[in-house]
Design goal:
The chain is built from twelve helices and eight strands. It is α/β, with parallel strands linked by helices. It is elongated, with a radius of gyration of 23 Å. Bound molecules: 3-methyl-2-oxobutanoic acid and sodium ion. Pathway: Cofactor biosynthesis; (R)-pantothenate biosynthesis; (R)-pantoate from 3-methyl-2-oxobutanoate: step 1/2; Cofactor biosynthesis; coenzyme A biosynthesis.
Length: 273
């Protein structure tokens, strides 16, 4: 298949459901791409699911850049999007442009940042620099302390209305697509009908232009997953079984079965040395 561009993704609205998944390294990016996903996101969720940090607040540019490089080394045909980590875009427009440019230099196709209409100017500046931006509203994990935890957003009229207004403002700022995380489904549905760019949802119901999931959640790699995640395989048990089989085989001498020896004459010489 051919390399996907933001135009291809935008054209999927009303045509085909957009399939997005996170990846953080070379082998899983390759597998996700072989499976034919449309978008690979190097999410700052990597802080929690890969690096063992307590939240995404601990993730900085250095981690995001290393993992972006690893994913880009797989040369995905999928659109590659990198998350802007906490405090990489909030406090200065120069910093926001500079940091987002680093991802494109490594091979990413776009960046994603969390936030509503308060980031309109920041987004406009990045987009005007030639860097495609994906928005992210609803539950924005970088603001979990302010939000009051990882809770469902938009259950009441005011929150729902604010989300709709944010979506409209963000579209106006030039984003090419919008992630809507863990909102009441009616909110995601209304936004999807109202804006002309694709919505990509996680935990916000089926009435969106696409879905995104954290790869570790669908593979069953973690001890904890959010309620909206679906496990398609219990990879954790599969991996544990493989490692414990290896352990018993080493302990009982069954492994290794294959090994290689010296040339006969040299072997004799060596045995007498
Ligand atoms: O960091 C991440 O994985 C994300 C997705 C859940 C949208 O932002
Ligand atoms: Na994220």
């Amino acid at each position: 298949r051919k390399k996907l561009t933001i135009r291809d993704i935008m054209k999927m609205k009303n045509n085909k459901k957009i399939v997005a998944i996170t990846s953080y390294d070379y082998p899983t990016a390759k597998i996700a791409d072989e499976a034919g996903v449309d978008i690979i996101l190097i999410g700052d969720s990597l802080g929690m699911v890969i690096l063992g940090y307590p939240s995404t607040l601990q993730v900085g540019m250095s981690e995001m850049l290393i993992h972006t490089k690893a994913v880009c080394n797989a040369n995905p045909k999928a659109l590659v999007v990198s998350d802007m980590p906490f405090m990489s875009y909030e406090y200065s427009k120069e910093k926001a442009i500079l940091n987002s440019s680093k991802f494109l230099r490594l091979g990413a196709d776009a960046i994603k940042l969390e936030g509503g209409s308060e980031y309109k100017e920041v987004i406009k500046n990045i987009v005007n620099s030639g860097i495609p931006v994906m928005g992210h509203i609803g539950l924005t994990p970088q603001k979990y302390k302010q939000i009051g935890g990882y809770r469902l957003i938009g259950k009441n009229y005011q929150e729902a209305k604010d989300l709709l207004d944010d979506a409209i403002q963000l579209e106006d700022s030039g984003i090419f697509s919008l992630v809507i995380e863990y909102t009441a489904y009616e909110v995601a549905k209304r936004i999807t009908e109202k804006i002309s760019i694709p919505t990509i949802c996680i935990g916000s119901g089926p009435y969106c232009d696409g879905q995104i999931m954290v790869i570790n959640d669908i593979l069953g790699m973690g001890d904890y997953s959010p309620e909206f995640a679906k496990r398609y395989v219990d990879l954790k048990s599969i991996i544990r079984n493989a490692i414990s089989n290896y352990k018993s085989e080493v302990e009982n001498g069954k492994f290794p079965e294959k090994y290689w020896g010296m040339k006969d004459e040299d072997k004799k010489k060596f045995e007498n040395s």
